[in-house]
UniProtKB/TrEMBL annotation:
This is Acyl-CoA dehydrogenase/oxidase C-terminal domain-containing protein. Coiled coil: none annotated. Residues 270-452 form the Acyl-CoA dehydrogenase/oxidase C-terminal domain. Belongs to the acyl-CoA dehydrogenase family. InterPro entries: Acyl-CoA_dehydrogenase-like (IPR052904), AcylCo_DH-like_C (IPR036250), AcylCo_DH/oxidase_C (IPR009075), AcylCoA_DH/oxidase_NM_dom_sf (IPR009100). Keywords: FAD, Flavoprotein. GO terms for molecular function: acyl-CoA dehydrogenase activity. Pfam families: Acyl-CoA_dh_1. PANTHER family: ACD11 DEHYDROGENASE (PTHR42707:SF2), ACYL-COA DEHYDROGENASE (PTHR42707).
Length: 571
């Protein structure tokens, strides 16, 4: 037997990563459940192509470069698909996030700011000057051309006498009459063109819109040449330093000092938190969809690896991991969790679309009818579901993504720059931020309790009568009883636990509706496992032997097509 070397001996066959639109059973079921057939048909080809593009060699080269050299929104506002535009958008984001090298972070804030400005433009009492400024910003934001903030020390002063000057000479957009000064300790997407921020006025915490740059004919080029009408400078901003972070290293995050930044008031003084909540509803859903997007890619890598990695099977035999009962049980358990997280995140996206746009005249499947809230419940449900999805999905996506990384053994722990498409360790580092920014899990949990207690929050969560007297829905009755019997202070101490139970009730209901939609035995098995895992009723049953057990797990992980191919090869 010849000794191995760096270029001779056994070499592990590289896994093949394929288009999730075809290969990801969870993605396929969500695509079918949350989109009417007419909308699905109209968007299928484009999403299929995106699924191919996000795993191209060029994309992975760019991902590697974004960390080596450190530092899609308009779809959600399409009129043709109306309320379903958000589902289409977030299905695309699910595929794009793990290949985007964190551009989805500024995209989320971009989207939230766009929605907030649209809300103000719909106000007929908005003055003409601010209407021009906000409309200009919205036009740019829609273009498809290639912790606790109450203690903020940023102050805003109304000073119309200093409003002279322009954010853009070409577009004739005036700088605002408010002067903002202070220190922002953690600011992402510092290379953007505009910002929405909070600052204190005499009437309290208020929201402001401001361009990041302003015109300055005296500005000079690197070579010292005056730039004239083309010259710009930062709008009263000084970048203090860039942050050094565990993950998201391709996304610049900085400490900013504001000194006389000119901006425009959004809404009424002292109502800044209310204004920012419009943005948070959107950015928190982005976070949830991004978390499950990272998980989807990591799971795809784990599945591909299991098809090529061979291990000892005893008595001199070897087998690939996809034939190992233990390994396939591990992957099947991840798949069941993944499908639940996917459905919950897409329900939040669907609710957002219903809140923003009218429902187009398309025929809904019976399954989609069951999970569509009544119009009067949409807004309070969005207030609740955005907290639930962000809190539960982000936290659990991290756990399951780590399980995917572990399933590759030492290979999963490496920074695989030479095979970037296998780089689960980068996905994991970037995914970890999602349970922190836009509100930590504890912040989301307390916000969730408040949302249930106000504005018909509990009523918006009531189960559809067509689901019947199903056991997990009984757990919801116990939650409602607690809200009737306990004070807000008592509920807050267990807010995270309550959010977890509610999230899992929602997921079981969604998995139930999904399984009933086509009587899929695989989807029914996923539902059964999830209910058992979460202790919501039932016992593990119906598994007749090792062969049947392995087949069930393989069907959950790879789908029925894989089973047909396997059985054909055995025959």
């Amino acid at each position: 037997m010849k000794a191995s070397s760096s270029d001779q001996g056994f070499f592990q066959e590289a896994p093949v990563l394929v288009n999730q639109f075809h290969d990801d059973v969870v993605f396929q079921r969500a695509f079918k459940l949350f989109l009417p057939q007419q909308v699905a048909n109209r968007n299928a080809s484009e999403i299929e192509n995106l699924g191919e593009e996000v795993i191209s060699d060029q994309i992975f080269n760019w991902i590697t470069d974004s960390e080596t050299n450190k530092p899609i929104v308009a779809v959600g506002y399409g009129k043709e698909d109306g309320a379903y535009s958000r589902v289409v958008q977030f299905l695309r984001i699910h595929l794009w996030t793990p290949s985007a090298s964190l551009v989805t972070c500024p995209s989320a804030m971009h989207d939230g700011a766009l929605r907030l400005l649209q809300v103000h433009l719909a106000n007929p009492k908005l003055d003409d000057e601010r209407r021009q400024v906000f409309q200009n910003a919205v036009d740019h934001l829609l273009s498809r051309d290639p912790a606790d903030v109450s203690l903020t020390e940023t102050l805003a002063t109304l000073d119309p006498s200093r409003a002279a000057g322009w954010a853009s000479v070409k577009e004739g957009v005036a700088l605002g009459p408010w002067s903002l000064s202070g220190f922002k300790w953690f600011s992402s997407a510092t290379d953007s063109n505009m910002t929405v921020l909070l600052a204190k006025t005499p009437k309290g915490l208020s929201a402001f819109y401001a361009p990041m740059r302003r015109s300055n004919p005296e500005a000079k080029s690197i070579t010292g040449r005056r730039l004239g009408d083309e010259g710009t400078e930062l709008n009263g901003i000084r970048i203090s330093r860039l942050k050094n972070k565990f993950g998201t290293q391709s996304l610049p995050t900085a400490e900013l000092e504001l000194n006389g930044m000119r901006g425009w008031l959004l809404g009424a003084e002292g109502k800044g938190i209310h204004q920012i909540s419009t943005i948070l509803n959107i950015t928190r859903i982005y976070s949830a969809v991004s978390g499950v997007g990272f998980l989807g890619r990591g799971f795809g890598v784990a599945k591909a690896y299991a098809k090529v990695r061979s291990v000892g099977a005893g008595r001199g035999r070897r087998m690939v991991l996809s034939e190992s009962p233990l390994h396939m049980r591990t992957l099947a358990n991840i798949a069941a969790e993944y499908q639940g997280l996917m459905h919950l995140s897409m329900l939040s996206a669907y609710t957002l679309g219903l809140e923003e746009q009218a429902v187009p005249a398309v025929e809904l499947s019976e399954a989609l009818k069951k999970i569509t809230p009544e119009p009067k419940h949409v807004s309070p449900l969005l207030r609740v579901i955005s907290q639930v999805a962000k809190g539960y999905v982000c936290k659990n996506s991290i756990t399951q993504l780590y399980a995917c990384m572990e399933s590759l053994g030492g290979v999963g722990y490496l920074n695989n720059e030479e095979q970037e498409y296998l780089n689960i360790s980068k996905l994991y580092r970037d995914c970890c931020v999602l349970s922190i920014w836009e509100g930590t899990t504890d912040v989301l949990s307390t916000d969730f309790i408040r949302a249930l207690l106000e504005n018909a929050g509990i009523a918006s969560m009531e189960g559809d009568s067509r689901l019947g007297n199903w056991k997990p829905l009984q757990a919801w009755k116990a939650i409602k009883a607690r809200f009737a019997a306990e004070t807000q202070e008592q509920l807050m101490s267990e807010a995270r636990q309550i959010l977890w139970v509610v999230a899992e009730i929602l997921i079981t209901a969604l998995l139930f509706v999904d399984a009933e939609s086509d009587k899929s035995p695989v989807a029914s098995d996923v539902l059964h496992r999830f209910v058992v895992f979460k202790g919501l009723g039932g016992v593990q049953a119906g598994i007749k032997g090792e062969g049947d057990r392995l087949a069930k797990d393989q069907a959950i992980v790879y789908g029925q097509v894989y089973l047909h191919l396997r059985r054909g090869s055995e025959e």
